Amino acid sequence: MEITNHTSHHNRHIFFVKGLVKEQALDKIRQTIAEAPTDHKKELWIDCSHVDRLHLTNSSICSFVSELLKIRKHDVKVVLCDMNATTERLFRLLRLDSLFEKARSFEEAEKETRAQLAA
């Protein structure tokens, strides 16, 4: 998991993250978010297509969600993108689906954000 893009526009800092979830990457993501200007809204958009393979890492779904909640506490909007059916079902069963915003893809999240800014 790594930050693949970092953009700033319309008083917002958006961090795009892709890849397999690893704890070291989450530390780097937290650090990068902390270094962003405080006068901007911060958003973390995560590609969740690899989340179902958490068991292959030293992490787990619990620690992944825990880290996302810690990030969210710092007034960062977390958007989970591209969740597969298994991961989405797991989040629903654990009642985690209401904690984070979801989008089918980065592109869909971008369209929604543009529509909200235009309104």
From TrEMBL:
Gene3D superfamilies for the chain: STAS domain
Pfam families documented for this protein: STAS
Chain coiled-coil ranges: none
Top-level taxon in the UniProt lineage: Bacteria
CDD domains membership: STAS_anti-anti-sigma_factors (cd07043)
InterPro entries membership: STAS_dom (IPR002645), STAS_dom_sf (IPR036513)
Domain STAS span(s) in chain numbering: 14-109
Family matches, as SUPFAM superfamilies: SpoIIaa-like
Protein name per its UniProtKB record: STAS domain-containing protein
